[in-house]
Amino acid sequence: MENENFFEIRNLNKSFNRIHAVNDVSFSIAKGEVHALLGENGAGKSTLMNLLAGVYKPDSGEMLFDGKPYNPENTSQARENRVSIVFQELSLFTLQTASDNIFAGKELTRTGRLDRRGMAERSGEILKEMELDIDSETPIKNLSIGQRQWVEIARALADDARVLILDEPNSALNIYETKILFKIIARLKEKGITIIYISHRLDEVFEIADRITIMRDGQYIVTLKKEESSVDTVIPIMLNRKTTKLFERTQSEVGENVLDVQDVCVSDEIADISFKVASGEVVGLCGLAGCGIETILQALFGLRGINSGSVKMMDREIFLRSAENAMRSGISMVPSDRREAGLILDWSITDNIAMSLSFITARYGILNHKRDRDISSSYAKQLNIVTESVRTKVLQLSGGNQQKVLLAKWLATNPKLLILDDPTRGVDVGAKKEVYELIDSISKQGLAVILMSSEIDELTSLSDRIILFRDGRIIHEIEGGADKETILKYIAGDAGINKEKASDPTDGAKSERGSNEAESQVYARLRKFFMMREVGVFMAFLVVACLFSIFIDGFMTQNNASIILKQMSVLGIITFGMTFVFATGEVDVSVGWLLNAAMSFAAMLMVKYSFSPWAGAAAGVCFAMLLGACNGVLAISLNLPTIVVTLGTMTIFRGFALSINHGRTISGLPTENSFFDLGRTAVGGISLLTVVALAVFALCLWVFYKTKFSRHLLLNGDNSSAAEKCGVNIKKCRFSVMLVSGFLVGIASMLSLSNLTAADTTTGGGYELAAIGAVIVGGTKMGGGSGTIWGSLIGIVLITTIQNGLVFLGLQIGWRSVFIGMIIIIAISIDFLVQKHRTSI
Question: Is the CATH number of domain 245-330+415-423+437-509 3.30.420.10?
């Protein structure tokens, strides 16, 4: 084999809390080979790959890449060395587009600004090379889990890697999508790219691998050539015990019907679905992506509304309006994605299991913690969950044990019907065997089971009978144990069985665009325009302005317009800074008193120390940046959310201001200086304050939409863990955004000082709420990951206009706050409804 020592691992070690995840591992990987890495969950495979990819640094040992020492400090350095990884757990940014995800952390730039067109074109080329019909500008949240997996793979291919690590890359792909993946791997191999492939699907490993390395308990065991081994030979090595057959289910005794589904229809996705499941029976559901299985499973668990038809449990008709309603009817469902939809990883085993028990163990709304612990301990023993205590956080468990916790969570509800949606996805051979034995055991105890699996062999070995779906309908039913080719013939169609190319692995993206294709292009563009949040807020502003002008004399005068623009100028700049903060997933409630402290500091320098106004203003801006930097340093060093830090620092900054001005307004500033002309001079009827604010707006607009800096802020706000894996410096982002916020508040404070020609003790109070309100009204998402400077501008215009109009109406400040609060609530509600509508079309 050419260059067998292309990538060498020598005596590599990595420990976590005294546990050897990787223990003195040594082996080599050849250039241009597909090298499979096998082992149970907890064997150390993923940890070893994270060492190769720069996610972790080894405690000891060395790595050689093409004969040279290789020791990446982070994922960015690994990618620079052309070593890329597709993580087992998807590390995507759901609010960003496919293109943004593919180039996350390695954005293309041109003369210092983002090359969005170049990234979109290159993303399209990569997706086309992968034979996928995914629009690179489609947000990830609108893609199916299988399509998201493709985007993760496309990101790795965009690195032009020499070594590509694939950690369970097809865990969410169906059989035809997997064929596409294998074709891609074959092409990459022909180009001399080295593939390290981790999978629990042993038949697939033997289909594509050249050599196989087995790990166990963090240690290297052996490397085998594919032609010198087989599934039967590697399983005993992986499990460290003799076994030749993974599982063989015995026939259960089938009893009375538990579930009776008749002519069920859900939207336009499934129609006239009818089937029954009896006690002691395992009924498999099989079909390609988009065939309707996921919809019927969600409908049976109350997650989707049923338009027509009936569902009976134990011959009694039930109405599934919610998941709790389904659980009370005796139905439980184990979801396919345990991390996103099944478990709360930071909670303990007991707390996770207790989530589903609250309506059973709680009395009059009071939780019974002792009973929850007893039930959790009982199921931990029954399911052989490897843990020191049921108080252990689920995050600390292996994937297989996490899956057992998920199963225990739903078995603890004592269901009559258990729905299993891909229950062995991402678990190792040993854990699979235990899950299979559990399914066999509970069916023998009389439990009715519905099983959906992405592995057809799993369905045929576990199911008593298999119901086949295609295009939202049941097309056939076969007995368990049927061969794979027969099943494929039905679910793909006679023509589809002979095609190597997937019939259509991207139905979700196509269906999303289908309605638009039926409309005229002009209408589609208009609809897209009016769906923009900024347009809605602007229209709201026009309505408010018209109403005030009709009912309030003097509202639409030039003098009042100048007042509104001045008020908007200071608050607007603070709002632009808050937009950056929100986009990063942070909240800064200290900006109001930070502004007051900066004003007081600059005024003191001008009056007490005879600083020129311009020098004092510059010092005031620097002081504001220093305070902003303090917020960032405290948040990072204490590892606290900025809202917690700034709740404390807002009082500290208020104390700084009072110490500087001694509780009195600082007046007597040299107002004859040109600095104070900013508040007194108008150009074409527009104050210089407004001109400066518009210049700051233009700068923020450019930075937010054109720079890598802002892109990293959005990635951090969307998914900080994924951003870190993509090489984004999370701590730097958090610090930088607070520094930027401090800088913009500093500019706003100096404009305010120029306008007021004094620094009083109250200016700035409440500014933080106005800025937060404007950002939310403008459409920036709370929690991070998205933002709009245009929206924030329109938001602050709307809020300032309303405040001004309410003053004309004589409303006290308390009632004005009530109105602004109501506007914020309405804006959040509208945003929720718009987002819900977007995901449904």
Answer: no
Helix 369-382 to helix 399-411 angle, to the nearest 10 degrees?
120
> How many CB atoms neighbour CB 61 within 10 A?
17
Euclidean distance between CA atoms 158 and 126, whole angstroms:
7
8 A C-beta contact, residue 176 and residue 503: yes
Q: For CATH 3.40.50.300, list the domain ranges present in the chain.
A: 7-239, 245-330+415-423+437-509
Start-end of CATH 1.10.3470 domains in the chain: 557-840
Task: Give per-residue pLDDT as tens, 427-455.
Answer: 767 777 888 888 888 898 899 999 998 77
User: DSSP state, 632?
Assistant: H
* Contact yes or no for 72/78 (Cβ under 8 A): yes
Q: What is the pLDDT of residue 404?
A: 87
Q: What is the pLDDT of residues 494-552, one digit of tens each?
A: 433 333 333 343 344 444 444 444 445 566 566 665 556 677 778 878 888 898 888 88
What letters, b where the CB count within 10 A reaches 16 and e where it falls short, cover 822-838? ebbeebeebbeeeeeee
Residue 246 is predicted with a pLDDT of 55
Dihedral of the CA atoms 516, 519, 521, 522 (nearest 10)? -120
SS3 content of the chain, % helix, strand, coil (to 5): 50, 15, 30
What are residue 266's phi and psi, to 5 degrees?
-130, 115
For residue 471, count other CB atoms closer than 10 A to its CB.
15
Q: Are 625 and 746 in contact (CB under 8 A)?
A: yes
Place of tokens 């410096």: 729
Task: Give the least confident one: 366-380, 545-559, 756-770.
Answer: 366-380
pLDDT in tens, 97-115: 999 999 998 899 988 889 9
Q: Are 12 and 210 in contact (CB under 8 A)?
A: no
Residue with tokens 């990635």: 715
316: left (phi over 0), alpha (psi -120 to 50) or beta: beta
Locus of tokens 């069920």: 264
pLDDT digits (tens, 9 = 90+) for 298-325: 999 998 889 999 999 999 999 988 888 8
d(CA 592, CA 595): 5
Q: Does domain 557-840 have CATH number 1.10.3470?
A: yes
Task: Say how far apart CA 109 and CA 619 lie, in whole Å.
Answer: 34
CA distances from 301 to 144, 273, 417, 446, 667 (A): 20, 15, 10, 20, 68
Q: Shortest CA distance to 574 belongs to which of 722, 656, 693?
A: 693
What's the rounded Cα separation, in Å, for the pair 715 and 717? 5
**Beta partners for 283?**
450, 465
User: Which whole number is the average pLDDT over 562-584?
Assistant: 92
Rounded to whole angstroms, the Cα distance separating 664 from 657 reads 10
Q: Give the ranges where 91-218 is alpha helix by DSSP (H).
A: 98-102, 116-129, 145-157, 175-190, 202-208
Q: Which is the CATH superfamily of the domain at 7-239?
A: P-loop containing nucleotide triphosphate hydrolases (3.40.50.300)
Average pLDDT score over the chain: 85
State the CB neighbour count (10 A cutoff) for residue 599: 30
